[in-house]
Amino acid sequence: MISNHNVLIVENDDNVLGILSRALQGEGYSVCPAHGGYESVALAFNTQFNVALIDTLIQPTGWVETVRQLNKISPRTKIILMTSYDMDSDLIHQVLNIDVQQIMSKPFHLEDLFYSINALCPDLQNVSRQLHEVMS
After folding, report:
1. Superfamily of domain 2-135
2. Are 31 and 25 in contact (CB under 8 A)?
3. Distances (CA, A) of 31 to 18, 81, 85, 113, 136
4. What is the DSSP secondary-structure string of 36-95?
5. pLDDT digits (tens, 9 = 90+) for 24-61
6. What are the pLDDT digits (tens) for 87-127?
7. 71-94: burial string, b at 16+ Cβ within 10 Å, e else
């Protein structure tokens, strides 16, 4: 069922949050937007997310603490980190020390995001394909 495929988006920029939410909903995913770490962790207590998209600039808690908390609450959730920064050695070191499955540099193409989600969660790819077949 499509509604069982939940994506958490943790993004402090309302424009980016809106674009990602609409794009993923258009692909058949249920989306829960969150503006920061506290909100995302609270949502994870009540909803099992397949994927969490987390921006590196979220406040007041940073992305590292947010990822740690989400991993404790929902260890099966796949984490995609979104960053506007260059992937320097500090960022790579931090990512290696916590459970992040992928890093995407902003700006990125939505098709690349869909591909990443489908690669991390192959069962979600079937949902997206079925939705497109029904809509055609």
Report:
1. Response regulator (3.40.50.2300)
2. yes
3. 11, 16, 25, 14, 23
4. SHHHHHHHHHH---SEEEEETT-SSS-HHHHHHHHHHH-TT-EEEEEESS---HHHHHHH
5. 999 989 999 999 999 999 999 999 999 999 998 888 88
6. 666 766 676 678 889 889 899 999 999 999 989 987 765 54
7. bebbeebbbbbbbeeeeeeebeeb
* Extents of the domains making up the chain: 2-135
Confidence band (pLDDT; 50, 70, 90) for 1? very low
Length of the chain: 136
d(CA 49, CA 70): 10
Report the C-alpha gap between 108 and 105 in whole angstroms. 6
Tokens of 37: 């770490």
d(CA 38, CA 67): 11
The DSSP call for residue 12 is: S
What is the spatial distance between Cα 128 and Cα 118, in angstroms, rounded to a whole number?
9
Helix (H) or strand (E) holding 99: none
